[in-house]
Amino acid sequence: MDQLWTSFDHPLVAQKSVSLREIAHMPFVLLDMDEHVDTVGRYWSAMKLKPKVVFRTKSIEAVRSLVAQNVGVTILSDLVFRPWSHDGGRIRRTVVSSAVPSMDLGLAYRRGAVLSEATAASASTLRLLAKTLTRESQPRMDDEPQ
Questions:
Q1: What sign does the CA torsion over 80, 4, 68, 53 have?
Q2: How far apart are CA 102 and CA 90, in angstroms?
Q3: If DSSP codes are grouped into helix, strand and coil, which group holds residue 40?
Q4: pLDDT tens digits for 92-137?
Q5: How far is 64 from 89, CA to CA, in rounded Å?
Q6: Distance (Å, rounded) from C-alpha 97 to C-alpha 104?
Q7: Which residues lie across from 91 on neighbouring strands?
Q8: Cβ neighbours of 17 (radius 10 Å)
Q9: 30-55 pLDDT, tens digit each
Q10: Strands 91-96, 2-7: parallel, antiparallel or unpaired by DSSP?
């Protein structure tokens, strides 16, 4: 699930959800990685909106830091979320009410195939990650301002 990331003292912190229209007026930090920029462009243009990009980076750590310092907000997957940045800032998630595609992860292999030890370990890790993300996809208490 993709959600809006903000600093803990951001004006949107009290809202349960936020629309792309509301986010469009805010400084936006864009992660420039793989096809992410194209994906972001598609869901913004589908709403006939454009983010107010103030910073573009290939570093997820830079995104976390800039969001935590209230330089801007971003929309990213729960897959890469954690409520803190390396420089000690805190980050909070808010549900985006507009349609934002999720980042999905899949695992496929032939039924009955004998998996190598490395492949079995990878599959086990992915299953554990999927369970963890499902459990944590709702904002937790540590996401709430204190």
A1: positive
A2: 23
A3: helix
A4: 999 898 777 666 667 788 888 899 999 889 888 888 877 776 665 5
A5: 8
A6: 19
A7: 7
A8: 13
A9: 999 888 899 899 889 989 999 999 99
A10: antiparallel
